[in-house]
Amino acid sequence: MPLIIKDEYPEKLFREDGKRLDGRELNELRPIKMEVGVIKSADGSAYLEWGNNKVFAAVYGPREVHPHHLAKPDRGILRVFYRMATYSVFDRKRPAPGRREKEISMIVSDCLEPILFLELYPGTSFEIFIEVVDADGGTRCASTTVAALALADAGIPMKSLVSAIAVGKIDGKQVVDLSGIEDKAGDADLPIAITWYNEEISLLQFDGEMDLDEMTKFLDIAKDALSKIHQMQLVSLKSKYITLKEGEGEKKR
After folding, report:
1. pLDDT < 70 regions, the chain
2. Within a domain: residue 223?
3. Is 249 within a domain?
4. What pTM value is reported for the model?
5. What is the spatial distance between Cα 126 and Cα 121, in angstroms, rounded to a whole number?
6. Which H/E stretch holds residue 63?
7. Number of structural domains in the chain
8. Beta partners for residue 169, in sequence order
């Protein structure tokens, strides 16, 4: 078995045939699998496989706020807890939540809060627990996407779903859906999320170098990819209720 050295990355991120190292084209998404209703004890839940990322999300609420001083008398609050399992990355991660996990928890909360009617639930809280069991680039985008699915599965009134993806530049070329290696060794990455009820950007971060023309093109290719992800979210939600309806029909027979 070859020795894997954690901090060494290939000099080139494209193969000789022009495709990316994992065989994808520039605008091709990694394989994506979505499923809702996977955690029976939760009010709503979802599971997402995105490339080598594997992420669970569970939603609880509305329920009493603890500690009580965090409650708001005129609206509910949204609390997000993003965690990475100790075995989810190459080096064993410390069990305690780190700075990055707290940052991503805040980012996901900021992305999702605009789509919720929190004013309908004064003095209560909704809590989303996100667990990354395998990580390979783009976990904040995967977590935002799966958390929105879990909220919908919980039957919480929402204005729309939220979809997120990371686009970037590797070896001078613009690509969609960065893998872990591309994220670390590439020239630039831009995570972006969109709320579909008004098609506004709810997340936009940037790391690297690009000019204004490149940024404009990035936003265009990101929206095309986000539209595909949004359709996958809708299909996964519909499939649950189609299955339930078919099951009821069989019982009546």
Report:
1. 1-9, 244-253
2. yes
3. no
4. 0.90
5. 9
6. strand 53-64
7. 1
8. 174, 188
